[in-house]
Design brief:
Blueprint: E1 3-5, H1 16-19, E2 25-26, E3 43-46, E4 49-52, H2 61-73, E5 79-83, H3 88-97, E6 105-109, H4 122-130, E7 137-140, H5 148-157, E8 162-165, E9 169-172, E10 186-190, H6 195-206, E11 213-216, H7 222-230, E12 235-238, H8 241-244, H9 248-262, H10 274-283
Parallel strand pairs: 1-12, 2-5, 5-6, 6-7, 7-8, 8-11, 11-12
Antiparallel strand pairs: 3-4, 4-10, 9-10
Helix pairs in contact: 3-4, 4-5, 5-6, 6-7, 7-9
Amino acid sequence: MQLLNASGCLDALTAPETVAMLDAFVTKTVTPNPRTGNAPVRIAETELGMLNAIGLANPGRERFVADVLPRLQELGKPIWVSVGGFTARDYAQTCEQLGRDAVASIELNLSCPNVDEAPESAAEIVAACRAVAANPLYAKLSPHSWDIGESVRAVEAAGADGISLVNTLRGVALDGRLRPTLARTSGGYSGPALKPVALAAVHAARSVTELPIVGMGGVQTGRDVLELVACGATHVALGTVLFADPDAPERVRAELDEEAVRAGFASPDDVFCAALDAVVNLEN
């Protein structure tokens, strides 16, 4: 199992010491053209997490490839590039510019709640990228779908090499005068309360695919990581927790073995798909 960061939750160039604790680094989402993002207010805290409506602020793919990516490579970690766009062609053209040697994997951000979505389906976008990209492609999906298994099957058939689950959920926070706190009204909700949603999505995805799955959503502790692995996650990403605890990767690793033993397993590796096996055993 690899430990990663969730896209947008860590700036590698300002926090290289946190990146050093991870197995791979996932970039902020890169779009074809530079984006300043949405107008402020763009972040709102909630009782059990936070809302963000950053709007995919980034320098654009030309500057990313020429300037940012070489600096990230100097950190000595595998680089996963999160790619976004507003048409399938946007995604494909960005993927085409990312060299296989420089980029370990590409994560296609197919479900950002803070910007307008591409008119094409997730599967159509994956297929367009598969046609031009030699890199492994991970499809990052929304938990909004009632049948996440159907979405997973579709992107796998289109050529995805892995799945990332889950992206944030859309939410709204109100201020003291009962007005939306965020300028955009709604934003992507993340934090501890997202974990049950993530567990359900990963469990459903693992039931229909053998592809690698990056589980994310509400991860705070080693126990949280273990639960995602039990539901079928191959790798786990830390998100909101990194804002408050930049040492979380090291702490979580230290907790993993102890949590596995407490749950009755010899090691974290033995936990993989335990939640699915339990369901099968009950049915038999």
